Amino acid sequence: MSKKQHITSVGGQALIEGIMMQGPRGIATAVRKTDKSILVEYHKFTHLKDKNKFFGLPVIRGIVAFFESMIMGYKLLMYSAEASGMEDLEDVEMNKFEKWLTDKLGDKFMDIIMAFASLLGFALAFVIFFFLPVFVFNKLNSWTDMALTPWQGTIEGTMKIIIFVVYMLLVSQMKDIKRLFQYHGAEHKSIACYESGEELTVENVKKCCRFHPRCGTSFMFVMLILSIIIVTLLSLVVPAELKQNTIIWMLIKLPLIPLIMGIGYEFIKYAGKHDNVFVKIVSAPGLWMQRITTKEPDDDIIEVGIEAIKAVITDNIEDDEVK
Predict the structure, then answer these.
(1) Is 124 exposed, middle or buried (0-12, 13-18, 19+ CB in 10 A)?
(2) What would the 3-class secondary structure string for 22-88 be?
């Protein structure tokens, strides 16, 4: 592989004891099994933009890509838990009640648990990121005789950023999450090594940076920054009596979420191809957050990243889509 910048876009996701990569050859996962071997498999996934050109239009493709990544990411996380053998280890630690439920419900037991966990997680995220900032702002605004009204969007957005950072700092202290973040780091470093044109070896990958502008962490931060700008502008035209009602103000802002996703996606695409001052300034918070969401990987984790990226790259193929 020559030492030149590769323009083929490759993206990925950290999994349980593994990494998913998406590139010209499709989607592949590399998972470290309990016997220390690495299982590499390809996965079929048809993108909506391949079925209908409408879903490939600017901004629209960002909304579609977000939901597709959520669906695909969930499925591959479940797959990696099984492929790595982690599920078998967890089965040993089940209590009598859990074993009874598993015997009675079979595979449906885990489906029910995961569905409930997903629903609970969504509800918790909605309360923390949507309800809480609006509720707190309204309280603060009432205590200051509505003096903060012009800054509603900015203050609410800043609270969301603080909540997001604190949450990531807390979960990053968990042992299992730390290991997941090491795989996240290996994913970034492997992609950086490939994009720099270096040979994909453990030593070369170790030298690469674990921060990447196309990371999902950066995407989240771009969305938060965009929400501050857009909601601040919106708050200037929405009547004060509507904004003071927490539920109504949340419902007014909800339709903006897809728009923010779409614009954020377009920026991440742009940032992956440009290195100007504007990109550096807007990308800086997301890259800083990656100091929390990525960790330096061990050699055995880097090996998984290398196997994953090798499975999806093809020389001399151009693909300018950000995955």
Answers:
(1) exposed
(2) EECCEEEEEEECCCCCEEEEEECCCCHHHHCHHHHCCCHHHHHHHHHHHHHHHHHHHHHHHHCCHHH
Structure tokens at 22: 């998406």
DSSP string of 290-302? HHHH--PPPHHHH
What is the tens place of the pLDDT at every residue in 253-312?
888 989 999 998 998 888 877 778 888 888 888 889 999 999 999 999 999 999 999 999
Q: Nearest CA to 288 among 155, 161, 182?
A: 161
Q: How far apart are CA 65 and CA 56, in angstroms?
A: 9
- According to the per-residue pLDDT averaged within each range, which of 73-82, 162-171, 214-223, 292-301 is highest? 292-301
